[in-house]
Amino acid sequence: MIKDKRDNTSISTLVSINSSASVEQDCAIGEYSIIGKNCIIGKKVSLGHCIIGKNCIMQSGSPIGEDRFAYERPDSGKLIHFPHLGK
Q: Measured on CA atoms in the order 43, 48, 35, 19, is the torsion positive or negative?
């Protein structure tokens, strides 16, 4: 794990970040992540086990490639956990 001394950003050693990509402050880039060409990773983004293609923008605070608190309420009215899936 690499810690950036300017802020709280941490980047796993098992990550590939294209040299043209930008990672803003206070991010957590977890293992097995690939960040493509010309990407912008906003402040406080948390990602892991994912592939971010070229020219993508991850808005501040986004959780990518990780299970989060997402629920869906179908017509039955019962809350159902909605998984975050991706490549």
A: positive
Cross-strand partners of 29: 11, 47
Residue pLDDT tens, the chain, 87 long: 555 556 789 999 999 999 999 999 999 999 999 999 999 999 999 998 889 999 999 999 988 876 666 777 888 888 887 766 555
End-to-end CA distance of the chain: 23
What single string gives the DSSP state of each residue in 2-38? EE-TTSS-EE-SSEEE-TT-EE-TT-EE-SSEEE-TT
Domain range list for the chain: 2-81
**Within a 10 A sphere around the Cβ of 24, how many other Cβ atoms?**
15
Per the confidence metrics, is the pTM higher than 0.85? no
Architecture of domain 2-81: 3 Solenoid (2.160)
